Amino acid sequence: VPTRLISVSGTLLGNDPVERFVHRLAMFEPLEPEARDALRRALTRGPLTGAMQELNGEALQDVTILLSGWLCHFRLLDNGRRQITSILVPGDIIDYGFLTSNSTELQCVATTPSQLGRIRSRQFAELGVQFPSIMRATLKAAATEAAIGREQIISLGVRSATERLSHLLCELWYRLSAVGLINAENSYDLPMTQAELGAVLGLSTVHVNRTIQVLRKTGAISMQSGKVWISDLKKLTSLAGFDPSYLSATPSN
Amino acid sequence: VPTRLISVSGTLLGNDPVERFVHRLAMFEPLEPEARDALRRALTRGPLTGAMQELNGEALQDVTILLSGWLCHFRLLDNGRRQITSILVPGDIIDYGFLTSNSTELQCVATTPSQLGRIRSRQFAELGVQFPSIMRATLKAAATEAAIGREQIISLGVRSATERLSHLLCELWYRLSAVGLINAENSYDLPMTQAELGAVLGLSTVHVNRTIQVLRKTGAISMQSGKVWISDLKKLTSLAGFDPSYLSATPSN
DNA sequence: CGCGGGGTTGATTGGATTCAATAGGCGTGG
DNA sequence: CCACGCCTATTGAATCCAATCAACCCCGCG
User: Fold this and answer.
1) Distance between CA atoms of B47 and B45, rounded to whole angstroms?
2) Cβ partners under 8 Å of residue B135, min gap 6
């Protein structure tokens, strides 16, 4: 695998973050070359945020895209308990509030330094009219995020700790492979602490740790210093009861 | 309160299910009288489903609306465990798959006999073009459903059993009052068994029962045979840590 | 009249939290 | 350059919330 090009389902995807985003949108709905060009032109580089930095609402007025880095939406309750409601990986749209021109009240933190991109909402609206395919792709992306949320509900509601964790690792494997972020040895960066994983999975830090050890012992994965090796995706999938169809990212060029 | 008219935030809402739906959409975005008329004309009566009956996917090709009765989206895992991922009350759109012309794979059961309404997706698309307010209202309704899902994630993740239940009861109070389904003595019908509530809240049937008793003892509510009396909404709200802003149903017009 | 579903209650079990203590890594500042 | 502190990971022990198991009641219904 060459340094600058990563193979994704037979096509070559440059590791340029902008290209990554365009490619990902096109997985939801085929985009004409002109639509892609228009997207590239409309997308401007936004701020670079540091790790642990919170994004304020005003930063999300426009269509904001995570070009590189990881973000989490979360909610902090009075009693200090925190729940992460979604994980965002490169190529994801951070918030779909622009579809309803509603100012969202989502809290968001970066778990790594992250590069944001933005498209002015007015300009995006014009794009959507000019290229209906862009609007369709965006709506499908939003629907996919909703499906991911549904899976999290199911995890928190009826899945065991090991099922939750392995399901999350499976999901991330599929989502990251869609944007060319799976390494050659079938590993990927997972820049989240065990405490943060607990806040996603509804488990205590200690129990996350023990659950990771259970998974390690099955031989399906290994984890170390922010990296996950998927040594047996098939086994991991069956441990999780994972069915990737909800991600609905059919690789269409 | 007259029999056929129910007061909702100062306006009078007929208990005609079609009117209820139009009124509810208009709460998300003001709708011109012509837009309302067009909606009424486009909406046709769909099938009447029995309780415990499952809706199959083909029934959801079009824009399907719950005119009366209650539905639940759910997921059944291999091990027999079931998680309800959303509760639908009269006036709700059952599935937003039409926005992406995706056939959804959501399973859905009726907890009471339910009357469905439908708008052909092609016709709805035309409506959306002719009346952008309808499209905006629909997108906001979808966004609200997403927000409800996020709250469920938070409940399952970090809220205690009593918080979960009281939060759900608060949410239903607000959602039902938006469609004129709160009775004079501040009660509403809750046509779900304790087992079903458990499948929503991620609790066992037995524990739901005990949690109800805890709430009863606080004096905030009473429950009996499918009916809930909210005797102290303020106390219930504080027990739940409930903030209704996510429902974003600003009573407009 | 017997049956099944829903609700209620008690006793027991168990998965996960909490408390507590240790070790390793990393950055900062003396 | 090393010491210190903080964050993260790990492990053991005690505790607890909720699940499970098991009965029982009530009621509508065939």
Assistant:
1) 7
2) B127, B128, B129
Ranges of H-type helices in B202-242: 205-218, 233-240
In sign, the C-alpha dihedral spanning A57, B177, B86, B136 is negative
Residue type, B33: P
Smallest CA–CA distance, residue A212 to chain B, in Å, is 19
Torsion of CA A188, A189, A195, A201, to 10 degrees: -40
Check: CB of residue A63 under 8 Å from CB of residue A97: no
State the Cα–Cα distance between residues A123 and A173, nearest whole angstrom. Answer: 33
For residue A58 the two structure tokens come to 């005003």
Chain B 214-253 residues in 7 Å CB range of strand C: 226
Task: Count CB neighbours of A82 within 10 A.
Answer: 19
| Tokens 């490169």 found at | A90
Residues 6 or more apart whose Cβ sits within 8 Å of residue B170 = B233, B236, B237, B240, B242, B244
Distance, Å, B45 CA → C2 C1'? 42
C-beta atoms of B102 and A143 within 8 A: yes
> Does residue B160 approach strand C to less than 7 Å at its CB?
no
User: What's the one-letter identity of residue B106?
Assistant: L
pLDDT in tens, A64-109: 999 999 999 999 998 889 999 999 999 999 999 889 887 667 889 9
- pLDDT tens for B12-65 read 566 789 999 999 999 999 999 999 999 999 999 988 887 767 776 666 678 999
Q: Do B140 and A100 touch (CB under 8 A)?
A: yes
Helix (H) or strand (E) holding B122: helix B121-130
Cα B76 from chain centre:
21
Q: Quote the pTM value.
A: 0.92
Q: How far is the CA of A196 from the C1' of D7 (A)?
A: 13
What are residue A149's phi and psi, to 5 degrees?
A: -60, -40
Which of B76, B87, B85, B90 has its CA nearest to residue B22? B90
Is B146 near strand D, with its CB below 7 A from some atom of it?
no
Distance of CA B213 to the CA centre of its chain: 25
Cα B81 to Cα B93: distance, rounded to the nearest angstrom: 26
CB A205 under 7 Å to nucleic chain D: yes
Of B97, B136, B157, the CB nearest to A156: B157
